[in-house]
Amino acid sequence: MPFVSDELYNDICMANDIVDYASSFLNLKKSGRSYMACCPFHNEKTPSFHIDRDKQLFHCFGCGASGNFVQFVMRMEGLDYRDAMRLLAERAGITIPENGIRQSTELTKRRDMIYEMNRIAARFFFDSLMDPEQGREARRYFGERRLSKKTITRFGLGYAPDSGAALLKHLISRGYSEEQIVDAGLAVTRRNKTVDKFRRRVMFPIINVRGKVIGFGGRVLGSEETPDGFKIAKYLNTPETPVFDKGSNLFALNIAKNTNETDLILCEGYMDVITVHQAGISNAVATLGTAITDAQAKLMLRYGREILICYDMDEAGTKAALRAIDIIAAAGGRSRVVRIKGAKDPDEYITKYGAAGFKKAVETAVPSTEFRLSLIKSKYDLNDTDGKIRFVDEAAQIFAGLGDPVEVEAYIKKAAADTGISEHAIFGKYAELRGRSRKQPPKTKESFKRREINRLNSQKPPEERVTGTVIEAEKRLLSLMAQSKRLCLKAAGIMEPEEFSNKIYETLARRMTEYAKRGEQADASVILNGFSGDPEAENTAAAVFFNNEVYSDNDETLYDLIYTVKQNKLDARLSASQNVEEIGRLIEEKESLERERAGWGKNGASEH
Question: What does the angle CA 424 – CA 330 – CA 411 come to, to the nearest 5 degrees?
Fold first, then answer.
């Protein structure tokens, strides 16, 4: 049984996001209103696993695995219900008290306060930039970088004055204490004196996918040394705070996620991203002053089918690109590399070759495997026998890390053509490194249905056993009831919860009706919470909420489904009965059902 109230359960789940959480395990792709991936609970090549972000539910149409957010956490983490709830509560900064009622903590309030201070600070920096006198130097810098006022406004760029405590005083005037401002990473205390964290810097607000300012990046203007020789960091980010983790966020993802592009372009710096966006390419993002992390790769793969790596093509940029390729692959994603020859970075490339030239470079980005092989090839003389052997040795190591057998075969063919070494020999080297693994055959949707019907019938006498037709009709009926309070009340006026074939469907009908009678829409996630701890029941119940069939007439469909259920059950009892009196009575019930069906929806008898 749940150990938190429905209200607290809702707060915990809403403070998290099933898509965000699942992205740490799965390579999710947007598909209509849901997200798809290959199922983590059975082996499959074609994705049949769906996540509904709005309902906070998951369902696999292949093996039948299904449930709500908490049940997904239980399965993925191997936790019981209580520990899964605690994990999600901790992620949200919510404490679960012993009575399961209190809903917020000091951490939640602290986060909300920092979000608000960051919002105020972003506006302060922007206004400082636009100030005729104060922002002159910063505007000159952005002008030299050829940024338009529209671009500056779009990204909320700003300027941090060099006065030492301008932002500090502004936030204090808005009612915040020095301690709170330091806690937000907007000020620092040195030698018992509190001053602004950012001074004489152009400012880049970092905004998360929910549109909240979580931190800032700042680039120093002018000299990087003080008069006394003290080195000033060229780039400076907000320190770690309760709302800012530079390894888990990306610059400009809040904009890039809303484009119609299927891929994301990963750049090295803020200005690279801004320049690319200004050129009309709005799917570029950047890490926050550090090398790419696993969390950032998984975050990008939520919004991009492939990641196009657009780093400087010098030695450091090449090493960073190779690292990014490995991390993206480990996160279950694919990547390509944008080659910007003849320029040190995207900004310079666009200046030289224009937006059209950069778009062409993006369109011709090379697959990551081809990029890696080209680097190996440049190291060796393929006209030399020893060079060929060394090339094949290193190439086979790359092939061994690939998960797609078609890709492996294609590149083995290419390596054979480049070196003259047989495909068989190269494959042998690959197989030696790779090893072989057996896979279990995938479970199918039909096998899930058969298992479910057998399970439901296992404890029933013959006359009460149901067919697949009844189960499917009840499932569709419950789905309609879940979609509409009006339809739910209509169904409740004709069919009692006890008439459903099993306790799971009976419970669903009862809970949905309770919601409808209160004038509320059924909350799928909360209802499913009552089945936690029984995976089979979770699957059966959650599948109801993933039945999104559209009917030309919902009312008539509702009545037809109820009629199908009642009629099939009477037929089953007739087939099993050998008592003449009972058979006669059942025939009368069938005739009565026919007459009732003709009147459903016409005389208002079923209305509540």
Answer: 25
Annotate 503-515 with DSSP letters as a single string: HHHHHHHHHHHHH
Tokens, residue 197: 């964290």
- In this structure, the dihedral spanned by the alpha carbons of residues 399, 405, 409 and 412, taken in order and rounded to 10 degrees, is 10
Coil, strand or helix at 363: helix
Tokens standing for residue 326 = 């490995």
What phi and psi values does residue 209 have, to the nearest 5 degrees?
Answer: -70, -15
b/e code 382-393 from CB counts within 10 Å (16+ = b): beeeeebebbbe
The amino acid at 515: Y
Q: What is the 3-state secondary structure (H, E, C) of 537-583?
A: HHHHHHHHHCCCCCCCCHHHHHHHHHHHHHHHHHHHHHHHCCCHHHH
pLDDT at 279: 95
First to last CA, the chain: 31
* Mean pLDDT, rounded, of the chain: 85
CB contact at 8 A, 49 and 38: yes
- Check: pTM over 0.70? Answer yes or no: no
Name the token pair of 510: 């009862």
Give the torsion sign (CA, 403, 408, 411, 412).
positive
pLDDT tens-digit profile of 353-381?
999 999 999 999 999 999 999 999 998 99
Q: What is the pLDDT of residue 450?
A: 53
Please say whether the beta carbons of 319 and 355 come within 8 A.
no
Whole-angstrom Cα distance, residue 493 to residue 477?
13
251 DSSP 8-state letter? B
Q: How far apart are CA 115 and CA 232, in angstroms?
A: 27
Would you tell me how many other CB atoms lie within 10 Å of the CB of residue 366? 14
pLDDT digits (tens, 9 = 90+) for 424-452: 999 988 888 876 433 333 444 445 445 55
The residues facing 51 across adjacent strands are 35, 58
Sheet of 213-220, strands arranged across: 158-160, 201-207, 213-220, 235-237
Q: Determine contact, residues 440/512, Cβ cutoff 8 Å.
A: no
User: Each residue of 14-32: b (16+ CB within 10 Å) or e?
Assistant: ebbbbbebbbeebbbbbee
What are the angstrom distances between the C-alpha of 59 and each of 36, 434, 545? 10, 33, 9
| Alpha carbon distance 540, 162 (integer Å) | 63
Query: Residues, the chain, total?
Result: 608
